[in-house]
């Protein structure tokens, strides 16, 4: 008996610890099924099973009635997974298998994706943390990607309940050491080596060459130079090994305040104006030091104020813009609108939807970010001024605004490769503290701020208003936001390039591919077929720079109005509309797990599939014409047939699976009695009592 | 006038000798104020577009502002409309009216005159302009905005005059008034004939054809109301169960409010019937035989009957009106709502909330109609507002053919126009203060469906906008009358009965004032060919709705006896009823509003046997592919920006999404290229 379990599990992950978690009675219950289930659990290289519990009831979320599917709840050092006892749920529609996420299954949650865990004790919901005295009858897991899982534990053996609940709480809520991140064990075991496509690759900005190339691309090399003064992180651990500073600035100045107070180049506009950032000098009480700081800064300012540099406008982001606390509290209110425990609750809040949405002020924060970015774009574009972003560490709002401005002004950043390079440049090399901001290690809740998500939301607003200007789609952004919590990609799991380099160092000796694949969460995350969706067919990669405009306006409003009164050039400057009705909820990201939000056969996907069909037709016609033109053997047209066969996709595609649709959900469930189900439960309960006695 | 005594005061004057429709005052303006020389120059140009009986009251050169590009042209006020005529623009012979540049006088909601930055005057009827305007803003009641700046220098009196003329003409206009003498040009007619015409349902043949199309074999066309003597608000013809005699129809309908008894609205291909009916007349005291007849008409041969209380959970007429006017205030360009408070103000209008309830209710009813073969009766007291809204929505949700251009127009014609929706009253142009834009609420609901299912509709948002804007254009009678009877009178439709009974009709100068064939569906009156091409949704994918209806069970008209189950659908739940009609037992108790007696708690087990009580049953029956179930969550009900925010050009971002139509152009272009290439290759 024991051998069976180990044998099957062992083929995947030969961990001795596995044995200790399997109790004879578990195998008792359903020999045959257990064996089959072990096959279904897919473990990644290096993944270890920690604990499990059987006969867990996963509730179907869509209605208040208490029915669901039985299965096994498993916690590994990478994820929490639920394996259904009912095999029929596995072979669902074509879409499910076709568009399955390769890493995370429908019933799987990575440990980092867990947001809050609640337990239900006698109908009362309580937050679970630390050591528990009493174990709940129901476990509710809120995920950071806004999924909500309900697991009923009433029919699970007490011991198993204890083990699984405390296991899950411990592995998701307790502070963790960086070394314990799953990505290290994955890296140590993973074998596959991603191939780096030399032509179409994301620029990592981890070599001097990459920076020089970027300077050349934006024609910033006349006034700025790439420096390697921080090679080996000698000067400062916060900054990347290579970065760009104004040419007249002596490299020796950089180390004086560990890189603080140094204007660092982000991007150059076509007219030569540049976007710079600077981390503020440490606050000092001592007058002497203050004096030194002042003279240092004066020197710096003198350099960048002198020709060939344009006028500099300083934007102090720490003092008169959003505060991080504001963002975090807005998001925590905002996300509650989507973390729905059951449908009834949703209908209750639905009447006040708009005012609840407004009171969270998340959309207003998005609007303020967009507005600030437009202001900066206006200075660069219309007033020919350099912009110097100033922030305490230059790694939060600086990253957000500088990358947002570049998405608006540089069409290259609206291609997929360009966008990935931008994230790499501004966020990864810019030293955004992903580890702290995502609270991956659960060490301090105070540091948690969804900065990167806010950035993606802002980009989404732009994309939603100007879809043809982007090569990628919102699905790409959504998948990108999800990869923040998948610890097999190292991209979003460090606070700085320095931290990553020292931690991944010994891995590199093993010549493992992680450093190269760091920005690949997007590539191949879904199976190939979905790439059509992720890659916007309309966006074309255009490296054309913005046409110089000779208009010189002095106010934001004029700039904004005049841009919007002209037909927009999708390969030039792109400004979002920021009026009240124009800033919207990113429905795909936030609503995708709510069954009530699913429009069967509707939504944007319906238009998209039509578009794809027409694109295929255009392509084949174009090929035919070419064929006749050249009268040569032509290439076989391969039309993207992905959406053809699946006649009716839902609006939540590709995230929600096509649920077997019942006609019922439109009706409130008030009058219903689920007699059948309850009887069923009662029977099962009896069975277990019997078993226990045996 | 000949129908003046009927209680409605429509200001329609088809007589030729009084073409200016009682507008005599503006004559003086016209005579005295216009600088004559210029008038002669422009005269022919301006009058060329005039309709018969239309008179130019005043005009002034100006520049249309707010929209790109700014257009120089002439602002003209006539006794029928305000028009901005761009320089060099000629009215096409085919489209005598312009959807873009015309503002019917009744459509004018608010007029503002602006001078400088600070002087703004709101012009009410009878108010006198206090300064010479530099700019005039005309806010349409259909949310459009016409903003014209006047040229400076020498022409100031004209600016003043045209503004005053508009204010006066507006004050004297009324909804009942109609453009006279619009006749479809030959070109327009020929282009119209390419598409099958929309059945106006004014003849019994139309009704018969439609009945056959729906496959309603157990129904027939009743001619009992042919002379409108049963009910003026009902259409001449309607569908009743085959086995019901006309005399029975006449008797039973008398027991309903305004004689609007139960009639077939739509026959579901799988066998169910959707009926609509007015409220029971609680005052009447039918005999047993009548009650039986009423019951069998409601039952329509099915053993399972569901009565739907239409008004339950839906807004009242006053609610709709209030919400709409709040919405208009919010959407006006000078709306005071701050950007960060916009959403809660929008919520405060409750307009979206009402849309949500309509959609929710409609999809509930759709499920009722689809899930089992039964008779579903929509019952509203007046049967003229929300019954039409719900029944149209149900058909849009369940029948793919209702989502085609032709199908949708016939749907509106049948469920709104022929069914007697009081358009004139609801758009606030009669003395009755029952203004409520229920029809616009319906259009918004359809727009929501279009948003949610972009590939399922043959028509586009632009078409819905065109329909939205048509309700106040007085070109055809479709939306200008309250009842089919009035419409029939006016359009001069005569048959032998009317001739005998109302001899006045014979002398009606039919065809003189209006072409009786004209309806709102003659789009070429107002929309150019290019515009009409935009009515088609390029994303429409008709193949995605296969005809998958299989008749579930033969509808059993032969089943005698009372229905085996009777339910009331209210508050989203089914309640069993012990009888269909309120009169049978104790009429005194039934007279009060709570006329329904829920069956005294029969054991819930037997209730669960009814399929409604047991959700698992529902799951087992998968919904057919052609059925749409809209989602009504807060984030999914959206504001129809392209309609309501048109007055705020800074928000407008192009009427249609450019991408898909651009792609279609490209496709057409390539196909053209290919055609050109093909013969050459073959020849060589």
From TrEMBL, chain A:
Residues 205-590 form the Myotubularin phosphatase domain. Transmembrane segments: none annotated. It is found in: Cytoplasm, Myofibril, Sarcomere; Sarcoplasmic reticulum. It holds the Pfam family 3-PAP. The keyword Aminoacyl-tRNA synthetase does not apply. PROSITE patterns: PPASE_MYOTUBULARIN (PS51339). GO terms for biological process: phosphatidylinositol dephosphorylation. Acts as an adapter for the myotubularin-related phosphatases. Regulates phosphatase MTM1 protein stability and possibly its intracellular location. By stabilizing MTM1 protein levels, required for skeletal muscle maintenance but not for myogenesis. Heterodimer with lipid phosphatase MTM1. Heterodimer with lipid phosphatase MTMR2. This is Myotubularin-related protein 12. The gene is MTMR12.
From TrEMBL, chain B:
Pfam families: 3-PAP (PF12578), Myotub-related (PF06602). One of its GO terms (biological process) is phosphatidylinositol dephosphorylation. PROSITE patterns: PPASE_MYOTUBULARIN. Residues 201-644 form the Myotubularin phosphatase domain. Residues 1-38 are annotated as: Disordered. GO terms for cellular component: cytoplasm; membrane. It comes from the Eukaryota. InterPro entries: MTMR12-like_C, Myotubularin, Myotubularin-like_Pase_dom, Prot-tyrosine_phosphatase-like. Belongs to the protein-tyrosine phosphatase family. Non-receptor class myotubularin subfamily. This is Myotubularin-related protein 11 isoform X2.
């Amino acid at each position: 008996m024991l051998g069976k379990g180990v044998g099957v599990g062992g083929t995947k992950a030969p961990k001795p610890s596995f044995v200790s978690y399997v109790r004879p009675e578990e195998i008792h219950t359903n020999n045959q099924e257990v064996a089959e289930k072990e096959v279904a659990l897919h473990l990644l290289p290096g993944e270890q099973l920690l604990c499990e519990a059987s006969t867990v009831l996963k509730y179907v979320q869509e209605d208040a009635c208490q029915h669901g599917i039985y299965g096994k709840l498993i916690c590994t050092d990478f994820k929490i997974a639920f394996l259904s006892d009912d095999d029929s749920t596995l072979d669902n529609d074509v879409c499910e298998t076709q568009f399955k996420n390769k890493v995370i299954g429908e019933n799987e949650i990575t440990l980092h994706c867990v947001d809050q865990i609640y337990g239900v004790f006698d109908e009362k919901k309580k937050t679970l943390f630390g050591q528990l005295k009493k174990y709940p009858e129901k476990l509710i897991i809120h995920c950071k990607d806004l999924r909500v899982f309900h697991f009923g534990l009433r029919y699970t053996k007490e011991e198993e309940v204890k083990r699984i609940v405390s296991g899950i709480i411990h592995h998701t809520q307790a502070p963790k050491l960086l070394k314990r991140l799953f990505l290290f064990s994955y890296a140590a075991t993973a074998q596959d080596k991603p191939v780096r496509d030399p032509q179409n690759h994301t620029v990592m900005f981890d070599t001097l060459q990459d920076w020089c190339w970027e300077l050349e691309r934006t024609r910033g090399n006349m006034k700025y130079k790439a420096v390697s003064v921080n090679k080996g992180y000698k000067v400062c651990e916060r900054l990347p090994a290579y970065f760009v500073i104004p040419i007249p600035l002596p490299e020796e100045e950089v180390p004086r305040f560990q890189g603080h107070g140094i204007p660092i180049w982000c991007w150059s506009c076509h007219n030569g104006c540049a976007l710079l950032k600077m981390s503020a000098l440490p606050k000092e009480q001592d007058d002497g030091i203050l004096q030194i700081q002042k003279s240092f800064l004066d020197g710096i300012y003198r350099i960048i104020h002198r020709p060939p540099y344009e006028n500099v406008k300083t934007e102090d982001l720490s003092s008169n813009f959003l505060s991080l606390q504001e963002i975090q509290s807005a998001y925590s209110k905002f996300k509650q609108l989507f973390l729905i425990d059951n449908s009834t609750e949703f209908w209750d809040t639905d009447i006040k939807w708009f005012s609840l949405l407004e009171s969270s002020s998340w959309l207003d924060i998005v609007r303020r970010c967009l507005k600030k970015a437009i202001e900066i774009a206006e200075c660069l574009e219309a007033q020919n001024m350099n912009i110097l972003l100033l922030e305490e560490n230059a790694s939060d709002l600086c990253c957000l605004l500088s990358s947002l401005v570049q998405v608006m002004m540089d069409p290259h950043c609206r291609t997929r490769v360009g966008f990935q390079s931008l994230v790499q440049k501004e966020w990864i090399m810019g030293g955004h503290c992903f580890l702290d901001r995502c609270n991956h290690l659960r060490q301090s809740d105070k540091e948690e701020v969804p900065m990167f998500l806010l950035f993606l939301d802002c980009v989404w607003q732009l994309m939603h208003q100007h879809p043809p200007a982007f090569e990628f789609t919102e699905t790409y952004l959504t998948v990108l936001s999800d990869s923040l919590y998948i610890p097999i990609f190292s991209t979003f799991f460090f606070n700085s390039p320095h931290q990553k380099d020292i931690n991944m160092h010994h891995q590199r000796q093993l010549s493992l591919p992680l450093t190269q694949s760091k920005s690949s969460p997007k590539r191949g995350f879904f199976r190939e077929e979905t790439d059509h969706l992720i890659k916007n067919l309309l966006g074309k990669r255009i490296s054309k720079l913005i046409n110089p405009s000779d208009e010189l306006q002095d106010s934001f409003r004029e700039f904004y109005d005049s841009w919007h009164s002209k037909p927009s050039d999708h390969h030039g400057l792109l400004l979002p509309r920021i009026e009240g009705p124009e800033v919207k909820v990113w429905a795909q990201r936030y609503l995708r797990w709510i069954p009530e939000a699913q429009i069967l056969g509707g939504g944007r996907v319906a238009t998209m599939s039509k578009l794809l069909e027409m694109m295929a037709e255009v392509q084949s016609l174009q090929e035919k014409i070419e064929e006749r033109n050249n009268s040569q053997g032509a290439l076989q047209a391969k039309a993207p047939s992905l959406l053809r066969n699946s006649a009716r996709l839902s609006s939540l595609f590709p995230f929600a699976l096509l649920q077997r649709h019942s006609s019922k959900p439109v009706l409130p469930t008030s009058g219903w009695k689920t007699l059948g189900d309850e009887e069923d439960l009662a029977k099962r309960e009896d069975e277990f009592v019997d078993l226990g006695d045996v | 006038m000949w129908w003046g005594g009927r209680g409605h005061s429509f200001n329609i004057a088809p007589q030729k000798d009084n073409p200016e429709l009682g507008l005599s005052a503006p004559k003086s303006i016209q005579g005295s104020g216009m600088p004559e020389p210029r008038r002669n120059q422009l005269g022919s140009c301006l009058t060329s577009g005039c309709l018969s009986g239309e008179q130019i009251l005043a005009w002034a050169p100006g520049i249309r502002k707010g929209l790109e590009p700014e257009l120089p042209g002439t602002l003209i006020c006539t006794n029928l409309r305000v028009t901005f005529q761009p320089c060099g623009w000629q009215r096409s012979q085919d489209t005598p009216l312009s959807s873009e540049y015309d503002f019917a006088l009744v459509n004018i909601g608010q007029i503002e005159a602006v001078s400088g930055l600070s002087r703004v005057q709101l012009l009410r009827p009878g108010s006198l302009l206090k300064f010479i305007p530099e700019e005039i803003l005309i806010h349409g009641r259909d949310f459009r905005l016409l903003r014209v700046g006047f040229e400076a220098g020498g022409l100031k009196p004209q600016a003043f005059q045209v503004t005053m003329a508009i204010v006066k003409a507006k004050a004297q206009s009324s909804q009942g008034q109609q453009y006279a003498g619009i006749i479809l040009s030959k070109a327009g007619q020929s282009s119209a004939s390419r598409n099958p015409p929309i059945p106006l349902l004014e003849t019994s043949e139309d009704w018969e054809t439609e009945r056959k199309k729906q496959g309603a074999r157990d129904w027939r066309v009743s001619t009992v109301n042919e002379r409108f003597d049963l009910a003026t608000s009902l259409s001449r013809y309607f569908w009743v169960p085959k086995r019901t005699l006309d005399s029975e129809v006449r008797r039973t309908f008398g027991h309903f409010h305004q004689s609007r008894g139960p009639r077939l609205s739509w026959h579901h291909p799988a066998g169910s019937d959707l009926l609509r009916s007015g409220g029971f007349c609680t005052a009447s005291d039918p005999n047993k035989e009548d009650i039986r007849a009423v019951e069998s008409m409601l039952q329509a041969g099915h053993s399972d009957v569901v009565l739907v209380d239409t008004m339950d959970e839906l807004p009242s007429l006053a609610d709709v009106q209030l919400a709409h006017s709040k919405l208009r205030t919010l959407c006006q360009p000078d709306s005071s709502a701050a950007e960060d408070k916009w959403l809660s103000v929008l919520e405060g209008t409750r307009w979206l909330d009402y849309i949500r309830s309509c959609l929710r209710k409609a999809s509930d009813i759709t499920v009722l109609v689809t899930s089992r073969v039964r008779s579903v009766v929509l019952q509203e007291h007046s049967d003229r507002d929300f019954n039409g809204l719900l029944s149209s929505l149900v058909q849009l949700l369940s029948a793919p053919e209702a989502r085609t251009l032709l199908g949708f127009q016939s749907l509106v014609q049948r469920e709104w126009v022929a069914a007697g929706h009081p358009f004139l009253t609801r758009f606030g142009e009669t003395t009755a203060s029952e203004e409520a834009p229920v029809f616009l609420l319906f259009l918004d609901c359809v727009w929501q469906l279009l948003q949610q299912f972009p590939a399922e509709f043959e028509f586009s948002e632009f078409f819905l906008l065109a329909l939205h804007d048509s309700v106040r254009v007085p070109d055809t009678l479709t939306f200008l009358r309250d009842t089919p009877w009035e419409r029939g009178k006016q359009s001069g439709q005569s048959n032998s009965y009317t001739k005998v009974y109302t001899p006045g009709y014979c002398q009606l100068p039919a065809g003189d004032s209006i072409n009786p064939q004209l309806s709102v569906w003659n789009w070429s009156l107002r929309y150019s060919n290019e515009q009409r091409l935009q009515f088609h949704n390029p994303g429409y994918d008709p193949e995605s709705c296969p005809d998958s209806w299989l008749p579930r069970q033969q509808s059993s008209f032969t089943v005698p006896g009372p229905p085996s189950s009777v339910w009331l659908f209210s508050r989203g739940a089914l309640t069993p009823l012990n009888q269909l009609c309120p009169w049978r037992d104790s009429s005194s108790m039934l007279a009060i509003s709570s006329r329904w007696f829920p069956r005294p708690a029969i054991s819930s087990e037997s209730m669960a046997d009814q399929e409604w009580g047991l959700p698992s049953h529902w799951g087992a029956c998968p919904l057919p592919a052609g059925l749409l179930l809209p989602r009504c969550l807060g984030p999914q009900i959206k504001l129809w920006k392209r309609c309501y925010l048109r007055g705020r050009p800074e928000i407008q971002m192009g009427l249609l999404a450019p991408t898909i139509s651009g792609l279609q152009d490209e496709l057409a272009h390539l196909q053209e290229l290919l055609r050109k290439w093909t013969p050459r290759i073959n020849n060589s």
